Fold:
Amino acid sequence: MTAPHPAARHQLQVAQAAWQGRVSLIEEALNRLDEAVASGDTQAVLDGAQALQAALTQGVQDARLAVGQVLPSELLQRLTWAQQRVSSHQTAVTRGRVAAERALSVLLVREDADSTYAAPQPGMGGRVAAAYR
Structure:
């Protein structure tokens, strides 16, 4: 097997350096989001999520341009770790949304006829109850 041409080798090194920078940006955005979530600062969470989305979007665009390039295993491991962290955030957001929906459904009782806490509706049951008053 022959060694790659110097220009091709240089191009590969430049591409890998660009990937190192891109992965670092993704990791930094994840770190800021972690800190924002831990602090409970809503605006910081929104800003962190937007920064992460921008970094991931740019990463996807770079990945499309880099089709066929080989990434070092260390870089692939970092990307895998970042992917796991993003999944963890998605799970936490989903759990938070479900918990908020449950709390709101208890606090804001709907006035449906089928609701357990709704006022009795006039009908056979209401008439029967009125007969015993």
